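Quick check before the chapter quiz. The format below is the same one you will see on the exam, so make sure you can read both the input and the output lines.
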Amino acid sequence: MKIIIEGAGRTGSHLAKMLAVDNNDITVIDANAAHIRELASQADVATIIGQPSNIHTLREAGCAGADLFIAVNPSMHQSVNITSALLAKKLGAKRVVARIGNQAYLSPENKLLFKDMGLDMMFFPEKSASDEIVDLLRTSGATDTLEFARGKLQLSVFKLDDDSPLLDMDVKEFVHAVKGLQPDADFRIVALSRGGKTIIPKYDTTFKFHDYLYIISHRQGMPILMKFLGKDKVEIRRVMILGGSEIGQMVAEKLVAHKLDDIKVIDINQEHCRKLSEDLPDEVEVVCGDVRNSDFLQEQDIRDYQAVLAFTGNDEVNILTCVTAKKLGVPRVIAQVENLEYLRLAEELGVDTVINKKLITASRIYKFTLSDKVRSVRYVSGTDAEVLEYTAAPGSRITKGDLKEIEFPADAIIGGVIRGGESFIAVGHSHIEPYDRVAVFALPDAVKDVDEMFK
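Here is the expected output.
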């Protein structure tokens, strides 16, 4: 696939490296020569130094024969992305997507307007991140969660702490133990992550300290799993947000609609605090102070909050304040971490959930490199794998026999199936039928093979 990426900032560079692994033909455009040189030294991609909205530059990049054009220029003037994407479409690019910085563009009438103009998708990373955070606060026992078909199936991620009853137990023992408590419990462990490596488990795979377990189940079956895992569901009524960034503001506004008892936003900049006080709903308390000061946080009664969210714009501050909050007894801490090298460190230090805008964005765009049978692609914390939802095409290889008979890719696993109004957990004798919606957990090197199974 020929893919052109406009913008060699953090998001564009991450996308270029990720998509180049799949043997795609990647070209990256950026006016910043330093960004281009840095990317060229790290990835096997073609690069062009030039203004991304310049027609000559777009023609030189090969827009006439491009399968996908991705506009992710980090410029504050997001109109550059929209302009270059629309020009790329007129020059012949089959599909174009653009990063935006204005939530108003995503209203139904505006999305339709841009669709008519030629934009296949617009994405606002901050909005996507804030949506995920609010969803995570509803499932406080898991570090991440993903729902299929409006909750008919649910994939949840659980971290095994030093007091977990699962330590040194294998998969088979765990399944039998849960079934002993609730015989009709329907679930499947689709993967575990250990030391940065994702493993598709077998029955004799043994659980270890700090493993991340990825379990798919019916929503009603999740309470028994949480009980067995030693995870308490905490009702989150009081939330403290550290940093009044764009994500912080969006989360605060969304939480107001959930009618929580207490929402507090803390920012170090006095002028910004005044603006936050004017812009945010009256239900949100805004406080000016330095969140790096643990004494100050205790003065703000941090121990009384069920969740602390850190969005200061500084990865180190976000990680350390979450670690501090955890030590002070806060049940749930979530940190925004943009440096990919810090993700594992944050998890090892005890941060419950790490939010990274680049990874969220990459998952949404990755969908465009696959067949039209994939409904959604989603990154989940603690792993480099993807969770994909497919619709099985009539005559596709996935429908040709029971799962144990069709040689499904070894580095992928089917977790669950939605058929009409029903859903079930997939096992070896399960048979996928045309038009079934299928939840798949796949390592990066298996995604293309999985995609072929559903065509």
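If your answer matched, good. Residues 146-229 form a domain with the Alpha-Beta Plaits fold (CATH 3.30.70.1450).
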